[in-house]
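From the thread on structure requests for the teaching lab: each student submitted one protein with a one-line request. Submission from student K.M.:

"Model MFS transporter from Fictibacillus fluitans, tokens only."
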Amino acid sequence: MNTHQEKLWSKEFILITLCNLLLFLNLQMLLPSFPVYTKDAFQASDFTVSLVTSLFALSAIATRFFAAGILRKGKVSIILYTGAAIALLATAGYYWCGSIALLLVMRVLFGVGFGLASTTLPTMAAHVIPPRRMGEGIGYFGLSTSLAMSIGPIIGLSLLGSFGFGTLTAAGSLVLILIFPLAFANRSVDLSPAGSPAASSSSKKNTGAVLKKIALPGLLNLLLSVTYGGLLSFLALYGKQAHLSHIGSFFLFNALAIFLIRPFSGRIFDSKGHFGIMVAGAVFTMGGLVTLSLADSTLYIILAAMLYGLGYGMIQPSIQAWMIKEVPVEQRGLANSMFFNSLDLGVAAGSMLLGAIAMHANYSGMYRISALFMGLFLVLYLVVSLWQRKRRSSDAEQKTA
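Reply posted by the TA:
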């Protein structure tokens, strides 16, 4: 492999990563602010608040199945521009919602746009990342999401508190508008390596086998995302209930920990595989959730955020790289679709399930229950991994016999 092929920080990779930053910045500015706005503006219940998150996620999930099929045909620009335009229309439309029903409709519309754009960008990134540096490249690409996670909630909650929901939606709209010139400057990326109709037909026939290969990492990503859904939907409300004045700092220190760990975890994945990363990451994530449930000061919040961020930053990009490496090039759109679908399905399920639990218990107890999902994550991963190793060892013995 030559030097050009090994280059990671190409113009295309940088532009794609910037587009991803802007897309997720819009999401993170508005998502943690919606529970507070919905409670104050519409006197909504915890379950209704959870619908603001879950309906967006479910519409994004449904949309990605459609997007994955088009990506196999190489229709990159069409999907990206369409997704960004729909998300922009929905973001601007939030301001005009006079009822909770209309707000939920806009959330569904945003989910459609976000589903299209969020499937396209990582597929483009995977196409320009050198195969031997996939874990490292996806880790750096994911830092754009981490940066959005760190500054988005702070910007969003600050704008909402100081200037109101109208200013927040205007700022979110401006962020999405900036995607269009960056995407226009990156038209050189071509995602049609399979090319021929025969290759396309073969790709469709192999879809079932591909889905089987990525089923385990997809399920693990879902379990991880259940816990994140509880943070997005109820962390601000938990801060109010527990009288934690600096609860928003969780997002900042969570993202800081992700920034610190992702470059290292990506290199470990490329050289050693995913085993050590998954186990250690699950332990860190559980520790973060338990610590958060016990928080009675800003110091506890920071510690919880760092633990959770280390675990999340180790696990999530490794799962995405794992899924991409398991599939042929022409099926990367499908792998990214399943990665984000499992993420959004987990966020939606976590928001609704943990929201129902919060109605019968306090938020502190809800976060302790949330930690159990990472316990299930760890058990499932270890059981399946050990079974797969045993099966491979058995097959090797039979071949040498």
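TA comment: Residues 1-5, 193-200 have pLDDT under 50 and may be disordered. The first helix runs from residue 3 to 6.
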